[in-house]
């Protein structure tokens, strides 16, 4: 329980800080856009680049684990993405719903939680889950949104426009450059690495404060059904599907299997909100889904932690 509270409290407290800053006029509406652009174009790319550049490629070659965690992501994405009762919703908005339903708060909550509960052996699978969430899932979502926004022309022109947009997107370029350095065996100089570490460390707190600002500056969202669906998909469906794949379909050590389930059970991270802001889409439902899932996860993840603690690892 203490591990959950220690991981969840800072997330909720930072959102509350942003909300209070807006309510007491410490930060205005311009701060929301400025902070979000800082995260999207500076701090988050630095975080993703450094994670990939310093990744141990040998530890990433666990296809059973990747299949279990990615399978849970895909199932949950589709559940939140499908236009059930929302026929008129744009493809971009449905993609953001799907992203929110599958995007775990892996880096900020997941890694500390797994280390506290499962020990150092959980660090490699935690990093893989973070990369699949922040890089692979993000890349797929951005590609769909770009296609939706540029499909009014011939398909060759659409593909060319999407390719150019993706090539300029820092959230995709940064991790790909980091991966290229890791594959080539090139090490980032220590001074540059420390600079990237400092810049990347600001991504989560700035994004969470931005969510609080946005919540305080926007009226109550009408899409309660969408919020409920995203929260249900993230906190219940994704860990259930991941657990079935990890324990019944694929073969892996218990520590890896439980890490996959714990990472899948985390609340929604800030990525969907930042992407909605970046593309000028309505971020009201997404921001509330992040807040609600974070609060509810104190109960759901606590129950999961108690369940994991009662099962000795093989």
Automatic annotation (TrEMBL):
Coiled coil: none annotated. It is a multi-pass membrane protein. Pfam families: Mem_trans (PF03547). It is found in: Membrane. Its main location: membrane. Keywords: Cell membrane, Membrane, Transmembrane, Transmembrane helix, Transport. It comes from the Bacteria. The chain crosses the membrane at residues 6-22, 34-53, 65-84, 96-119, 125-145, 166-188, 194-215, 227-250, 256-276, 288-308. This is Transporter. It comes from Bordetella genomosp. 1.
């Amino acid at each position: 329980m203490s591990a959950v509270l220690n991981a969840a409290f800072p997330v909720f407290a930072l959102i509350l800080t942003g909300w209070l800053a807006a309510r007491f006029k410490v930060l205005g509406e311009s701060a929301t856009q400025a902070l979000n652009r800082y995260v999207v174009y500076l701090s988050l790319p630095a975080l993703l680049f450094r994670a990939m550049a310093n990744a141990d490629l040998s530890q990433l070659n666990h296809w059973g684990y990747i299949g279990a965690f990615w399978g849970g992501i895909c199932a949950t994405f589709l559940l939140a993405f499908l236009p059930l009762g929302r026929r008129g919703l744009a493809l971009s908005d449905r993609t953001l719903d799907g992203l929110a339903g599958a995007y775990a708060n892996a880096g900020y909550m997941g890694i500390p939680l797994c280390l506290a509960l499962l020990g150092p052996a959980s660090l490699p699978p935690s990093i893989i889950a973070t990369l699949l969430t922040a890089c692979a899932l993000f890349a797929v979502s951005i590609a769909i949104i770009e296609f939706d926004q540029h499909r009014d022309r011939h398909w060759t022109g659409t593909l060319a426009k999407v390719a150019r947009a993706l090539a300029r997107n820092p959230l995709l370029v940064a991790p790909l450059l980091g991966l290229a350095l890791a594959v080539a065996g090139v090490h980032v100089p220590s001074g540059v690495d420390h600079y990237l570490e400092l810049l990347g460390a600001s991504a989560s707190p700035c994004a969470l404060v931005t969510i609080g600002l946005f919540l305080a500056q926007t009226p109550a969202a009408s899409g309660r059904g969408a919020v409920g669906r995203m929260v249900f998909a993230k906190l219940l469906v994704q860990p259930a599907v991941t657990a079935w794949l990890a324990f019944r379909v694929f073969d892996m050590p218990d520590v890896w299997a439980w890490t996959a389930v714990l990472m899948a059970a985390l609340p929604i991270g800030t990525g969907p909100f930042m992407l909605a802001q970046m593309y000028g889409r309505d971020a009201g439902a997404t921001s509330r889904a992040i807040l609600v899932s974070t609060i509810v996860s104190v109960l759901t993840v606590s129950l999961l932690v108690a369940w994991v603690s009662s099962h000795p690892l093989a």
